[in-house]
Amino acid sequence: MGPELVHVVDDDPAMRDSLAFLLETAGFAVRLYESGTDLLERRAMVVSGCVLTDIRMPGIDGLDLIRRLREAGVTLPIVVMTGHGDVPLAVEAMKRGACDFIEKPFDDEVLLRALRSALSQGRTALAADPGVQDFRRRVETLSERERQVLDRLVAGATSKEIGRDLDISPRTVEIYRAKLMAKTQAATLQDLVRRAVLAGLA
């Protein structure tokens, strides 16, 4: 069994080079694509491993790429790289079939963990994951206000926007956010969004 293959799609040459170096150093085989079109044109080669794609690219962006790959019958796990604060895009990507997302700038270890996880289990395994069932149960313990804050966080709203929406101060939103993170045992906002999407709550 050879090294696991990662198909990297990013329009930034410097980013492609640094990802290739990082992944090859970590023991992955890497194929680089400068655009979504480039990957789609060579999709006959995309039969194993996983896809790592940037979400914001000229031409075919990450969301469109996911849709087209799925329509073409490519079922490989897809991990999406988003800019900081692109939570709504990340949610949309997961609804379209991405199995995970990471926010730039990311720690190398976070990326490697996401890729290993994507490679080791398909999305179906994730959805049936007892952790997802457990997350649903925890969400049921939230107060009405905590649930309102959760829904808006997962939709990508900031504390200020949530405060305006619910007519409470951003500081109060932060308190609700801390409580709901503790109750759902989500480590980060990214973790919260991922679990909410997998649990069908986003």
Describe the structure in your own words.
- The structure is a single chain.
- 54% of the residues lie in helices and 12% in strands.
- The protein is an alpha/beta fold and 202 residues long.
- It folds into 2 domains: 5-127, Rossmann fold, CATH 3.40.50.2300; 130-198, Winged helix-like DNA-binding domain superfamily/Winged helix DNA-binding domain (Arc Repressor Mutant, subunit A, Orthogonal Bundle), CATH 1.10.10.
- The protein has a 5-stranded parallel β-sheet, sandwiched between helices.
- The longest helix has 15 residues, at 170-184.
- Total strands: 5
- The CATH superfamily of the largest domain is known as Response regulator
Shape: elongated
For the biggest β-sheet, the strand order reads: 2-1-3-4-5
Q: What is the CATH architecture descriptor of the largest domain?
A: 3-Layer(aba) Sandwich
Distance between the termini: 38 Å
Give the SSE string.
EHEHEHEHEHHHHHHH
- What's the CATH class of the largest domain, please? Alpha Beta
Protein name: Response regulator FixJ
GO molecular function: DNA binding
Organism: Methylobacterium tarhaniae
Keywords: DNA-binding, Phosphoprotein, Transcription, Transcription regulation, Two-component regulatory system
